[in-house]
Amino acid sequence: MKLIDDLCIILKDPSELVDYGLGSLSQDLYVSFLIDQYNLDKIKELYKIISESQLDVKFSLTLKIGSESLLKHSPFDIAAFFFLSKYKLASGNPVVNILSINDKEYDVTFSFLDKLSKEQGFGRVICNRLTLYNYIDFTDIRNLGSEKFDEIQKIISGRDWLNESNFFLGAQLYTLKDLPEFIHEVERQEDNIVKSNPQLFKLFVLKVNLQKEVENLQSQVQYLTECLCNEKTYNKFLKENHQGKLLQEYYDHEYEILPTWFKRVGHVIKYITGKRA
After folding, report:
1. Among 196, 230, 250, which residue terminates a domain?
2. Are residues 264 and 149 in the same domain?
3. 3-class DSSP state for residue 53?
4. What is the pLDDT of residues 58-88, one digit of tens each?
5. Is 67 inside a domain boundary?
6. Which domain of life is it from (predicted)?
7. Does residue 207 form part of some domain?
């Protein structure tokens, strides 16, 4: 993909993957399992199917339920998916799609998911809000026709790529047999934009590279912030008279009585592993 780097195929039934292998497809592609009012009570069954399967492609969840129904359900049934090895993560954070919810419902759902993610040890949740702007539903027809191809063209050519912050496209197909044709049409529409607007594409590539650099710097800042927090905690620990005394006693009576050769071996190991210059 030249413009879209986050292509998601939404499925209602995980059994569709049994008859269709996705391992050979582009790494930009992943699947998302739809959770709505009809299968919310079967979410544990979905978890069991996915966790026991040999899923060879990244996946996420797509929520199509009101916040009231979501809040009544056990939050850990959703959080459990985040820890599966193939769950879609972005910068170490779980990705969830939210479909057909108004602004108020979206805000409540996002807050619920964000709080849930942080409680499980993640930094935050990343939500893709599916709209006519970034989502196509083909489930009302058996095959992709010219009208639906027009919808792909409208979405890709109608986006302001230089001001985009999320290069996501979601689609729900009638059958996975339509997937190769769908991907081919998306790539064809991308090529049309690249060929007709080479300067725009050049600026787009520069922007994407800059965003990646910013994300990398943000990760480094987060790491250094955590290190500083740990150092402050350690210093606070040392300043407490009782704990500091216990630490000193441990050093005097445990470490200092070790044989000199043992300490030297420790220094050599640290030097070899690069922990000491």
Report:
1. 196
2. no
3. coil
4. 999 999 988 888 888 888 999 999 999 999 9
5. yes
6. Bacteria
7. no
Neighbours of 44 (CB within 10 A): 11
Q: What distance in Å separates the CA atoms of residue 137 and residue 8, rounded to the nearest whole number? A: 12
Domain-located, residue 209: no
Structural domain range at position 111: 6-196
Together in a domain, 25 and 128: yes
φ and ψ at residue 101, rounded to 5 degrees? -130, 140
DSSP helix/strand/coil, 23? coil
Other CB atoms within a 10 A radius of the CB of residue 75 amount to: 15
User: Per the structure, how many domains does the chain have?
Assistant: 2
What are the E-state strand segments in the chain? 6-11, 29-36, 59-64, 89-90, 93-99, 126-130, 135-137, 168-172
Residue 208 located in a structural domain = no
* Degrees to nearest 5, angle at CA 19 with 14 and 21: 90
Residue 116 token pair = 């849930």
Summarize pLDDT for 137-174 with one digit per residue, the tens. 888 654 455 566 778 888 888 888 888 777 899 999 88
The residue among 166, 196, 226 that closes a domain is 196
* Cα radius of gyration rounded to whole Å, the chain: 25
Residues 6 or more apart whose Cβ sits within 8 Å of residue 238:
244, 247
Which pTM does this prediction carry? 0.74
DSSP calls for 110-150: HHHHHHHHHHTT-S--EEEEE-TTTEEE-TTSSS--HHHHH
3-state secondary structure of 6: strand
> Which H helix or E strand runs over 203?
helix 198-239
Token digits for 154? 């409208």
Contact 144, 179 (CB under 8 A): no
How far apart (Å, rounded) are the C-alpha atoms in residues 264 and 266? 5
